[in-house]
């Protein structure tokens, strides 16, 4: 694991990891985004 967030490589890896998680849970995040946009 890389704990130094200032390194662009670590940020890119972490971002791609987050995108994979979000794509797996896309329905939930879409509902959350709709809820946030209605505020």
What does this structure look like?
- This protein has 39 residues and is mostly helical.
- Helices cover 77% and strands 0% of the residues.
- The protein is built from 2 helices and no strands.
- The longest helix has 17 residues.
- The radius of gyration is 13 Å and the shape is elongated.
- It starts with 7 loop residues before the first helix and ends with a helix.
- The relative contact order is 0.10.
Quick gist of this model?
The protein has 39 residues and is mainly α. Helices cover 77% and strands 0% of the residues.
Overall average residue pLDDT: 77
Helix proportion: over 70%
Radius of gyration over C-alpha positions, nearest whole angstrom: 13 Å
Low-confidence stretches: none
List how many beta strands DSSP finds.
Answer: 0
Order of helices and strands: HH
Strand content: under 5%
Q: Which shape, going by the Cα principal axes?
A: elongated
Derived structural class:
mainly alpha
Number of helices: 2
Distance between the termini: 37 Å
Main sheet specs: none
Q: Which quaternary structure do these chains form?
A: single chain
What brief labels describe this structure?
39 residues, mainly alpha, 2 helices, 77% helix
SSE layout and pairings?
Elements (H helix, E strand, L loop, with lengths): L7 H17 L1 H13 L1
């Amino acid at each position: 694991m890389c704990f130094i967030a200032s390194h662009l490589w670590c940020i890119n890896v972490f971002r791609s990891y987050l995108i994979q998680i979000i794509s797996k849970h896309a329905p939930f995040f879409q509902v959350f985004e709709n809820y946030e946009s209605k505020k």
